[in-house]
Write a structure and sequence with these properties.
The protein is mostly helical and about 250 residues long. Helices cover about 60% and strands about 0% of the residues.
């Protein structure tokens, strides 16, 4: 797959670069450039990221960072079985528990929420850092919801991290998940309060909490282009160009 000339491979994390030192230099550079492309495309073009991850895996499948990147690329494309296999391989190579929450979420994706809950109660969770433990709590709550246990999901999310006024990288997502669970349980007023708190802490726009809050408040957003779709000559609406593209 083509790689832009401005991608040198030096952009990757120094720990990953160190892992690649076990490879011949030319090969290490090729793998590094493909890993950069995976990271660059993962959010906006998951399919593209997946393609580059397969190249990296073909070149260096015995490098843990490559297996991890392959796992995240597969995960972004909802290939949960493949992602889980890659994450397990990376974990065997490193002995790290950092991937435990996303591995549990893969179990959810495979339709095995009970397995995800088993993992949420495993000793590995105690070895996670605070961010990892919060992520595990989010996965466990999601598993409860998968099983139709809304009240249990709400209780799962109730934690010191949720109650804290301190804003951490995970705060917006935790508050959002709590608000969403409350709304699903029919507790609309409480949900509104927590969506508002999620908005306050969502400094990088990682959630659509503001849209959810507006919807609860009855605010409707109108595309500015809608006005242009009205024929001023006869007052009739022109058909949208995308009208036939909807599922």
């Amino acid at each position: 797959m083509p790689i832009p000339e401005d991608v040198t491979g030096e952009e990757i994390d120094k720990d990953v670069r160190q892992e690649l030192q076990s490879l011949p230099k030319t090969l290490a550079d090729d793998v590094a450039r493909n890993l950069v492309m995976v990271a660059r495309l993962l959010d906006e073009d998951p399919e593209g990221a997946y393609g580059y991850s397969k190249v990296a895996l073909r070149l260096a499948s015995r490098v843990a960072a490559v297996r991890e990147a392959g796992g995240f690329a597969a995960y972004a494309n909802q290939k949960y079985g493949e992602a889980l296999a890659e994450f397990r391989a990376a974990r065997r190579m490193t002995g790290s528990v950092d991937l435990w929450p996303v591995m549990a979420d893969c179990e959810r994706g495979l339709g095995r929420p009970e397995k995800a809950l088993d993992m949420a109660g495993a000793p590995e969770v105690q070895k996670l850092d605070k961010a990892g433990q919060v992520e595990m709590r989010l996965v466990a709550a999601g598993a409860r919801r998968d099983m139709g246990q809304l009240d249990a999901a709400i209780v799962t999310l109730q934690s010191p991290e949720l109650a804290s006024n301190s804003v951490q990288p995970w705060t917006a997502r935790l508050r959002y998940a709590y608000a969403d669970a409350l709304l699903a349980a029919g507790r609309e007023q409480e949900a509104r309060e927590w969506f508002a708190k999620a908005v306050e802490s969502d400094r990088d726009g990682s959630t659509d909490a503001s849209d959810r809050l507006a919807a609860l408040d009855g605010v409707e957003f109108t595309d500015a282009l809608d006005d242009d779709e009205v024929d001023s000559g006869n007052g009739e609406e022109k058909p949208s160009a995308e009208a036939g593209d909807k599922d």
